[in-house]
Design goal:
By secondary structure, this protein is mainly α. It is 41% helix and 8% strand. It has 8 helices and 5 strands, in the order αααααβαβββαβα.
Length: 228
């Protein structure tokens, strides 16, 4: 118990009792760059302003625009009156199976040998993947990410205890893909490395490989035994 004298002394100095807890040393994390742009957008009084920070549909008035397909899906789920039962550890089987068919094609020969875990968002998926790599790969694994990559990627993998290094991806001069640099870097990595690829809508550049370029990337990844 804290004596009344000590309590009064703490209060005089503006220190609450709970301020002496374990969490007093936790420092504020750095601000998110994209969300910071959104906050600046909100403060801007120019009527011509446009928020290009977050990738989301907007109306002409700048309000969120909900697609009709999303509204229909919500109504369908409400109509089905699901029982809200706990899901299996790896997620809803019907959802993961449908996701596999969407990603690989309904006739893909690999569907029967996929291991899929449902996650919360792409960042959540990377966290699960990073934790899996850290636990089951020997030593201190390195994850190679495109340069540049979304800022969360380095933080997520770093928090998993992984080393994060870049490979060439974006060519600022052409504002396009540095394919040859990318392929050279991936070819020169030690065999069997973990490589992060953005399947589409590369963040933050928006530069995606063409189907022919993807075929070349796939060949280099397979030839070097990388996990992508």
């Amino acid at each position: 118990m804290i004596s009344s004298v000590v309590r009064a002394s703490l209060l005089r100095r503006g220190v609450g009792i709970r301020a002496q807890s374990t969490w007093t040393q936790v420092k504020m994390g750095p601000p998110d760059t994209i969300l910071g742009i959104t906050e600046a957008f909100k403060r801007d009084t120019d009527p011509r302003k446009m928020n290009l920070g977050v990738g989301a549909y907007r109306t002409d008035a700048g309000s969120p625009f909900v697609l009709d397909s999303v509204t229909q899906a919500e109504n369908q789920l409400l109509h089905e009156k699901l029982d809200k039962e706990y899901l299996p550890i790896t997620g809803l089987p019907q959802f993961t199976q449908a996701a596999a068919q969407l990603a690989y094609g309904s006739s893909s020969p690999v569907l029967d040998r996929l291991a899929i875990t449902q996650s919360i968002s792409g960042t959540g998926a990377l966290r699960i993947g990073g934790a899996f790599v850290q636990r089951f790969c020997e030593g201190t694994p390195t994850v190679y990410v495109p340069g540049p990559s979304w800022g969360n990627h380095k933080a997520v993998f770093g928090d998993c205890g992984l080393t994060v290094k870049p490979y060439r991806y974006y060519d600022a001069k052409t504002r396009g893909l540095d394919l040859e640099g990318m392929l050279e870097d991936l070819s020169n990595l030690p065999r069997g490395q973990i490589v992060l690829l953005h399947a589409c809508a590369h963040n933050p550049t928006g530069v995606d490989p063409t189907p022919d370029q993807w075929a070349r990337i796939q060949s280099v990844v397979e030839e070097n035994g990388h996990v992508a």
